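Replying to the earlier thread about multi-chain prediction with a worked example.

Input:
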Amino acid sequence: MFWNLPYISVVLLTLIGISIIILKKNLIKIFMGVNILTSAVNLFIIAVGYRDGGIAPIYTNAPSTNMVLPTPQALCLTSIVIGVATTALLLTFAMLLYRTYGTTDVDKIRELRE
Amino acid sequence: MITDFLLHHTPALLVAVPLLGAFLTPIIGRISPIVRKIWVMGTMTLTSAIAVLLVYLVYTRGTFVYVFGALTPGLAIPPDSGGIPIRIIFTVDPMGAFMDLIVAVVGFCVILYSLSGDEKRTGLHYFYTLFLLLITSVLGMVSTGDLFNFFVFIEISSLASAGLVAFSVEQGRAVEAGLKYFMISTMGGIFLLFAIGILYGQYNALNIAMIAERMQFTSLDKIALVLMVVALAMKCGAVPLHFWTPDAYSLAPSTITAMLVVVSQASLYGLFRFVFTLYNLTLNYVTIGWVIIILGVLSMVIGVTMAIPQKDVKRLMAYHAVSQTGYMLLGVGVGLAVLGNQAALDTYGFIAIEGGLFHIINHALYKGLLFLTAGAIIYRIGTRDLNKMGGLGHSMKYTMIFFMIGALAIAGIPPFNGFASKLLIYESVYLFNPLLAIIAMVVSILTLASFVKVFHSIFMGPTLPEYSKVREAPPAMLIGMGILAVLIIAFGFFPQLVVDSLVAPAAHALINQGSYISAILGGA
Amino acid sequence: MRMSKIVRTGSDLMYPFIFIFGWYVIMHGHLTPGGGFQGGAVVATGAALVIVAYSYQEVNAMIKKAILMFQESGGLVLFIGAGLAGMILGFPFFYNWLANSGSLFGMSVIPGPNPGELNTAGFLPLMNIAVGTEVWGGLTIVILYMLSGVEKEGI
Amino acid sequence: MKKYLAVIVILIITSFMFIIGIDFVFGAPANSDMDDYFIEHGQEQIATNNIVTTVVFDYRGFDTLGESTVLFTAVIGVAMMFRKLGEGD
Amino acid sequence: MIELLAHGLVLFGLIVSAIMVFYMQDLLAAALASGLFSFLISLEFYILQAPDVAISQAGIGAGLTTAIFIIAIRGTKRFEEGHR
Amino acid sequence: MAFDLTLLTGSGFWNPFFWLISIVVALILIYIIYAFGEKGYKRGTQQVKPFISGNPEPSKAGVHVRAGNLYWGYMDALKVYYAGLVPIHSGILTDYLLWLFSVAAILFVLVVLL
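Result:
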């Protein structure tokens, strides 16, 4: 149980991320929540690939061949870049909305309804 | 030599050609509008041709396996690996090819349509770049056999379509619609990534066939299944996750709305693929089947009842898109709920799946046509408010005819294609549970009612003085719409031919998990 | 917004080092931790430093967005071209046709831990360069465009 | 009212997420045959010392193409949205 | 033992900085807390033997994402609604 | 016929040919009714005008029934239903996200516990 510390923190970070996304009303804050949630998922994927006592999967001057799994790291790289792309586009939306609506409060950005 | 090349590398070219076109469009698009049009049109035509070739190959030779980066692209498992696929594999089985065909046909018509009527806009090279990226992502989503690759493609489709929804940045409402769509899609993407992480952590594989073979259905798998179902049901716009649909569909340019329908169909494909191929009988298929059925029924009823009071023509059609998605979910959900019961599957379950899949292609055709006609009307008169329209039947005769074909098809009036697929769904669902079939019929009647309203308020009545100078839509638009209309009529007149040659192989491929696995892993 | 002269001089001095470090990370991607994405991000961070130190108008006069867009497209075309070149040579898409071939980047390595050699790994260094170029251009252009949105408002 | 519902939903989701936190064992992957293949054969097949780079660009190179495409899409999207505001096009 | 302590400390810092993001009403401070979060998670990746991802997260997550957050806050407004 | 037009639906069938026949029958009926029509009808004369108790006929464009007025009775009858349904589409982003998470929570309970 104690050794599952990374997984437990993933769960707690998910909790905080979802709370920010649902409970907060400011768009920029919500995007920070999305960032935290993405990072939590990334941490989860990296933690899945960790082997006790393993080293990074790089043969350059490596002392042994007990290596952690490389695929999660590849997936995580991809997901980080996707995360920054997503964040950039989301923030662009927020800036343009501020220009027309004059606010970043989600309760006031509701011209489209019904 | 060139045919040999084409025959061996079709799945790779299917994605590489539009991608290369998209990468070069921002550069080439700066030269002049004519060059840009030729470039985009050429790329799209080539892509459609390759997709049709791939569909032909898959339907004649069976599942097409293409391994990216291996020395022999047909060999899914390297000999020294001990029986595991290690690279990214495109597995185009008849189900995937069926979706490829839809993307190719609708994409081609949409690009033909968009050749005219874009003079008023700025930033068109960005528009066409994102359009080609959207096409690529949908083709990739329906062809891939790798979970993470699916996630990457779904993210491309989210970003590209969100950008395209907000294309008219000068209206704040379009940006708002884009934000809502993109935010919800991002959450769906995170869900999907989480599910992929869970599956990877348990089975150390990303290939769908490999995971399907190792699947044990632990409680972790159930969590992954729920995350996937929620994410993809959101992407395909099932009630109660449909809130982005009317916003995004109504404020995107009409060409993009027609493509967004296809994107949501591709998500639907992903949902069916995961539920049928990844989990199949190992999952609690009755529960998840009923979950899909309930989502479908909710979508049908709430979609159509929300559509009736709408005053914006595209918003109304968007709610109908939600409602029609419900039919597909209902048909395939019934098939899933009886998957373990061979007798029931033979009598009506398989036909329900056939109906659901047939409805996918029909829906893409007629909903695409309807959105394109709405786009032509908005292009000519400049408003989308139904209260301000009227009497356009006098000046836009061809558009009216195309609209009528689409409206009758969506309402399930014979002899158009919507009737054939709806009939399959009604009759098979009636054997499963009569109440569901009755709900489906009532929804169909309400659909007809609301399209009568739209037809009356747009085309009927005397020529209004403010629209006395309105002319017919430009010829390129009419050709794009005409191809779709001809296909709708053809599908309506030869339903059995389409079902036998296109839909039934796809349905077989969907429910037959073993053949998908053995296409990759061999034997077994 | 315009920073003080100390900040601008500092960023001028820092930028070449960040640039070289970024390209080191890109070029040694197949030997040490790093690669196209990481190196490209480092270079883009350096560019962000310069952009923050100078005002947007000055940066806009220095760097043309069209050139950055060209750079980004070029990186991607190089990337997909490396994959397509294999197809033209008769291999499948994305087959590593340079690895162990003896030519450019084609040296073999002895299995097991070793210090590594730069001239290995087939088309991976090419792809690292392509991706590095693309990420550098792409992230810089994102920052520039977002700043253009801020500056028009006059904040 | 809505806030309480939100808190309940968050708590339900978190409690199910704890299944993930407990069922996985940190430091001992349940299954590692695919990654063992990469670690064993990656160096000789691709002649690379950094196995992560090998996986990113060779074994899963197509994903990386998609990933670069995501970044490209985002850049095009941002450029498109600010097109009126930036000068030129 | 010392590694375990460092590991636990980093994870604790992660959660604390995430909670800081939740409570900060000044968005600029929240953006900086989010940058701290990214930096700590890159440290955690390093501890979990993923140096590639750590560099990537430090460059992209901690550097560029914070930068574009700050730009966006400059383009919108600095305080959350209901502040003071 | 090279292709079999009949669509088999397991328990029934459908053939577009029947529809063609019924269309022909309908056209014949229409023609018969048309043939019974008034022979002395002339276009463009006073004969065309309707007689509304001596009131002047309103202009054609003025009597066009706009979309908002259609289905008034339907909307009035289902007022209660729509009063519950329409406010759900509130236009607030966090509400929509809450729906997403709620569905996830419900499905967790349904699928994992059942």
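Chain B touches chain F through 68 residues (CB under 8 Å).

Feel free to reuse this layout for your own posts.
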